[in-house]
């Protein structure tokens, strides 16, 4: 080996892992850039945040939106700890092209969302801009680590009215059919007419209205499912399966709520099935759905652990 080769200085490029001597300074620079970028993104999407806050305040189906950003920041902290636990962090590393592309895509989606007044598309634009900015400033490794916290922001977006209405109608119809079927199994003389369920001893039928469709609990349970998958650091099979099971769990819980309301109407009277009592009943049912989901997540974890055990023993 030549002397010139051995005496050459060990230069540091953006794609290399940073030595500890410069890691602190580099982190400070990235933090400053991140703060400036966050301010710019907040200013760009300020009108959208105002509209979202108004929807979260006025529409009970999306009142959970106030919790999404704090939850996403909490997930950012967990993602950062996991990234540090993997070893030295690689900043840079060819994230410029990907970052610029995602930012441009986000800006175009933002313009389209403002033009056609679709907040869901605007939230997707926000996610693209955030991911592109992280990739541009910190590189693909950091961007990948923070992918879930960014994507979780989609839960703060309201569905387009046509999509929301179609889902509500489908769920109303499904809940009414299933609830009538279950009541009939217990020999309750019941008759369904669309969303109206006629029960014995009642002067007026029980209506499965849009508020009883279960959209609110469906979104909440779906968000909880993906959050559990992330917090458990589960495999792709674990996360996808748990998310897929969240929808029938939410539907089952809503059917239980409608059936319980019918039983209360027949036994205790209408005053115990409306107003505050009905709201408390809904909270209990959502808690029940969350408990079922947590139990399913625990069971999936046990199954996945047993599936991995033979592989590790063979290795």
Quick gist of this model?
With 315 residues, the chain is an all-alpha fold. It has helices spanning 3-7, 20-44, 46-58, 65-85, 96-116, 119-138, 140-145, 147-151, 161-185, 215-231, 236-267, 275-314, and strands at residues 191-193, 196-198, 206-207.
Structure description:
The protein is mostly helical. The chain has two domains: 133 residues, no CATH class; 140 residues, no CATH class. Helices cover 73% and strands 3% of the residues. The protein contains twelve helices and three strands. Helix 2 packs antiparallel against helix 6, helix 5 runs antiparallel to helix 6 and helix 11 runs antiparallel to helix 12. The longest helix is centred in the last third of the chain and has 40 residues. The radius of gyration is 25 Å and the shape is elongated. It starts with a helix and ends with a helix.
Keywords:
mainly alpha; 315 residues; 12 helices; single chain
Distance between the termini: 41 Å
Radius of gyration: 25 Å
Percentage beta strand:
under 5%
Number of domains: 2
Count of DSSP strands: 3
The 3D shape can be described as elongated
Question: SSE layout and pairings?
Answer:
Elements: H1 3-7, H2 20-44, H3 46-58, H4 65-85, H5 96-116, H6 119-138, H7 140-145, H8 147-151, H9 161-185, E1 191-193, E2 196-198, E3 206-207, H10 215-231, H11 236-267, H12 275-314
Helix pairs in contact: 2-6, 5-6, 9-11, 10-11, 10-12, 11-12
């Amino acid at each position: 080996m030549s002397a010139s080769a051995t005496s050459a200085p060990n230069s540091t490029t953006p794609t290399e892992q940073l030595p500890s001597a410069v890691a602190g300074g580099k982190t400070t620079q990235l933090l400053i850039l991140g703060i400036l970028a966050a301010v710019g993104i907040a200013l760009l999407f300020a009108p959208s945040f105002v509209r979202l806050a108004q929807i979260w305040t006025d529409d009970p189906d999306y009142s959970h939106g106030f919790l999404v950003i704090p939850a996403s920041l909490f997930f950012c902290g967990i993602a950062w700890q996991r990234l540090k636990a993997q070893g030295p962090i690689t900043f840079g590393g060819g994230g410029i092209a990907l970052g610029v592309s995602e930012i441009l895509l986000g800006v175009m989606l933002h313009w389209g969302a403002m033009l056609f007044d679709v907040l869901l598309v605007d939230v997707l634009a926000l996610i693209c801009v955030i991911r592109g900015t992280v990739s541009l400033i910190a590189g693909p490794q950091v961007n990948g680590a923070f992918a879930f916290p960014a994507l979780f922001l989609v839960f703060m977006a309201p569905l387009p009215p046509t999509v929301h209405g179609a889902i509500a109608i489908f769920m109303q119809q499904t809940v009414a059919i299933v609830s009538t079927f279950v009541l009939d199994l217990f020999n309750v003389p019941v008759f369904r007419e669309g969303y109206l369920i006629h029960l014995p001893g009642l002067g007026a039928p029980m209506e499965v209205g849009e508020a009883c469709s279960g959209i609110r609990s469906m979104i909440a349970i779906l968000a909880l499912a993906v959050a559990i998958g992330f917090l458990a650091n589960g495999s792709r099979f674990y996360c996808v399966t748990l998310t897929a099971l969240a929808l029938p769990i939410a539907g089952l819980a809503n059917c239980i709520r409608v059936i319980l309301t019918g039983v209360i109407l027949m036994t205790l009277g209408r005053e115990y099935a409306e107003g505050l009592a009905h709201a408390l009943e809904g909270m209990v049912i959502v808690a029940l759905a969350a408990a079922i989901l947590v139990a399913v997540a625990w069971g999936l974890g046990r199954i996945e652990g047993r599936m991995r055990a033979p592989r590790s023993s063979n290795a």
